Amino acid sequence: MMEHIHFYYCNDLHSHFEQWPQIVHYFKQKKIQHQRHNQESWLIDIGDHVDRSHPIAEAYKGKANVELLNEAGFDFATLGNNEGITLEYNDLYHLYDQADFQVTCANLRSIDGKQPAWLKKSIAFTTNENTRVKILGLTAPFNPFYNPLGWQVETPLGYLSREINKLKEDADILILLSHLGYSEDQMIAEKFPQIDIIIGGHTHHLLKNGEVVNQTLLTAAGKHGKYVGEIHIDWDRTSGEIVDKQAFAVETEHMQQDQHTLRSLQLKSEQAADQLNQPVTYLQHQLEVDWYKRTPVIQLLTDELKKWTNAEISMLNAGLLLESIEPGYVTYGDVHRICPHPINPCTVELRGIEILEVVRGAYNQRLVELELMGFGFRGKILGAFVFSGIEVQTTFDEDGVEHVQKVLLHNKELEHERVYTFATADMFTFGKMFPEIARSKTKQFYLPEFLRDLLREALQNRLSD
């Protein structure tokens, strides 16, 4: 006798609600279809549903996202890094208090030892045909960010090495909800064939027809709700084994919309706008934003960063500010719209010779024009780089290209071997944009503050009339 089991999921929505009504309609229709054939199906979110770059997520600190998942009838979820490290401790601790679905994240724990009531190591359930299914979630261990917020995340491989046999011993089907990334999923599949299916996210990879690694089926549906995923399992009750498992990613753009979800989003959007309509300051004149220029407002923010972190030098990029700030009353909603990124201030320790390399790199036009995706950046291009605490002397060659000649601190050139405290946006500690910053062994991340909190403070303190 064959049992047909179905799962539907989304991953890395990042509060891009443009396709959410389509996703909800599609999932609801699939549920109805399976019910007609006496088949069971479940809905899953793989994390990063919340993204505080969206006004709804910002105003409600993710709880409106949970309401949307409730309204859509989701059954299970795990946490992404956007739930985990962009919310203050109490906001995450109570994020899923009203969830109608179960949440699993096996490698997350509160440092003080008091776990949220909703947080489960794994979720076990039995189908109508008595097939035992177990689901566990794992999230990326960004402990330099988690620890200051009061959380600790165990390494996924460490957790699985210790627990995998126990997890599998009372489960016919073992499913991992992985907010770890594609390469990590592949590694886990190679090391732990006991896992039947890995539903992936975090690195925004798209596996339209799944991928089998070792004995494990991997699947993932990209980002921002442009695709959703579905998994279909054929379980032979007689032999007690999976005889077929398939995964697909389905494009959502041309799906029908769920009308209730449309109305709910509209209402939440209006309520969020009201909630963010808190006055910050009043401006007599426009503060111009230009991604290719070192304008007074990005200089103001860079100066504030240096002062706020007590650093000797600070650096930011003009692309962090998305729009000019118009005259009149400025609200927190305006500040959020202009600087929406979930990016934290940070400091690193760099030698003078390393700072020289950073400054030279910042004047590379290709970096200025880089269209960055990820690392918390929600803008278009990086834009011109701005410094505080140092004077950068440059010259132009015959082709009009600007070159760094000298970098002065207090009218003296940087000492090559002296160590300086250098403040910047946390995104520059990742990737290859500034290797000197990424390689620094001394990094301090300031949480839960975002750069927009510093912008708000700078506007209040220095520009209020």
TrEMBL record:
List residues of the 5'-Nucleotidase C-terminal domain: 290-427
Q: Report the InterPro entries cross-referenced here.
A: 5'-Nucleotdase_C, 5'-Nucleotdase_C_sf, 5_nucleotidase/apyrase, Calcineurin-like_PHP, Metallo-depent_PP-like, Pesterase_YunD
What keywords are annotated for this sequence in UniProt?
A: Hydrolase, Nucleotide-binding, Signal
Q: Name one Pfam family in it.
A: Metallophos
> Could you tell me which Gene3D superfamilies the record lists for this protein?
3.60.21.10, 5'-Nucleotidase, C-terminal domain
Q: Would you indicate the residue range of the signal peptide?
A: none
Question: What are the residue boundaries of the Calcineurin-like phosphoesterase domain, all occurrences included?
Answer: 6-205
Q: Which PANTHER family match?
A: 5'-NUCLEOTIDASE-RELATED, 5-NUCLEOTIDASE FAMILY PROTEIN
Q: Which family does it belong to?
A: Belongs to the 5'-nucleotidase family.
Full protein name: Bifunctional metallophosphatase/5'-nucleotidase
- Taxonomic lineage per UniProt? Bacteria, Bacillati, Bacillota, Bacilli, Bacillales
